[in-house]
Amino acid sequence: MRPCRRPGVLFERLADGSGVLVDPVSGSTHALNLSGAVIWELCDGRRDPPAIVRSLQQHFDAPAEDIRAGVDALLAHLAELHVLAGVPPRQPYVGHYGMLGFRVRVETDSAQYLALLNRLNALFRVPEPSENDEPQPIGFYEVVSHDGGALWELTFQGEELAWHESLYKAVTATEFHMCETAIARRQDLVHVHSAALAAPGGSLLLPGTSGIGKTTFALALALRGKDRGLRLLSDDVVFLHPKTLQPECFPRQFHVHEDALPRLEPLGLRFDAEDHIGEHLCSTVLGNWDRTPGPPVRWVVFTQLDPEGEIALEEMPRSEAAVQLMRFSKNLRRFPRGGLTIIPRLAEGAACYRMTRTDDLSAAADTLIELIERG
Fold first, then answer.
1. What's the domain range around 226?
2. Which of 106, 114, 192, 280 counts the most CB atoms within 10 A of its CB?
3. Where residue 51 sits, what CATH number does that domain have?
4. Which of 2, 18, 19, 1 lies closest to 10, judged by CA?
């Protein structure tokens, strides 16, 4: 074997003797130290590895075995990068996702990146579109690893989006951006900061800002009520059809605090290590979701946590509930009269409550399940 640089791969020597490789096909860049830069330049198709070793011995004062090991390791790495002739350019790994009618295509040079994104976005995965599929808006992401995964470059629709210094940050940033982009395109739906669950007799809203425990409580309800027809629709933002007041299903990953997991395990939460990715829990822990929209909203419950208090549930005036719902709504100004024709109608057709709950998730969940079963 006489290693040779693949035509088209760019190389730039720096003042300190090190260098940078750029692969125009994959878009990736790779740093080479001084010895690596010399080895790259010696990959001219005329020298075999022993000849490269002999040439390096003229440049560097090091034992021959060390130089030989270094040459073998770098040549293997260059082959993995597909920058040597005879090694075809690396084909991208591709993932397809669909959320709220928005289709996303992600291309990357990293199998590890795509595997992690697929895990996090498992319930948004869709097949590659065919010619017979109905056209949908498409977002295109490209994610390129640089310098052996030390840096990750994200682009969207051909424009640079961000750089990240870890695989985890690159994956979660992509997931966040694609969800936010899909959400922004659906201004025909009312967006409410809330969790939502569907029951046989109607849907339940749990409005509230981020950080108040909506996700933990919504998971507790879904786990506790799964045998009674209760299913989770969304844990943080709910998307309501303005005419029917039906919530869409949005099976996004859960952002959960570490201390919430042991509190949910007694309620039946089970997950594998790969389901827990940093601060995120894959939505597949609840199985394969029913993706149909929930029935019209029938219950609206505003919860507050009081660890030292007692569980209490009291009705609240619908006018007060309507004002609170408008406070937690995110895009009402886009609707006629600022949503005044939507939110009061929602509150008028629902039973509205104020709930104080404690750290006893089972008892709090049972209180709401009893309310729902009473109809």
1. 190-374
2. 192
3. 1.10.10
4. 19
Integer Cα distance of 281 and 256 in angstroms: 7
**pTM > 0.70: yes or no:** yes
Q: What is the pLDDT of residue 341?
A: 83
Pairing of the two strands 351-357 and 297-305: parallel
Average pLDDT over residues 136-157: 87
Nearest-angstrom CA–CA distance, 129 and 96: 8
Q: Are residues 176 and 227 in the same domain?
A: no
What CATH code is carried by the domain that includes residue 352? 3.40.50
Lookup: tokens for 44: 């001219």
Helices 111-120 and 167-185, interaxial angle, to 10°? Answer: 50
> Binning pLDDT at 50, 70 and 90, where does residue 244 land?
very high
CB 82 within 8 A of CB 18: no
159, 185, 211: which is the final residue of a domain?
Answer: 185
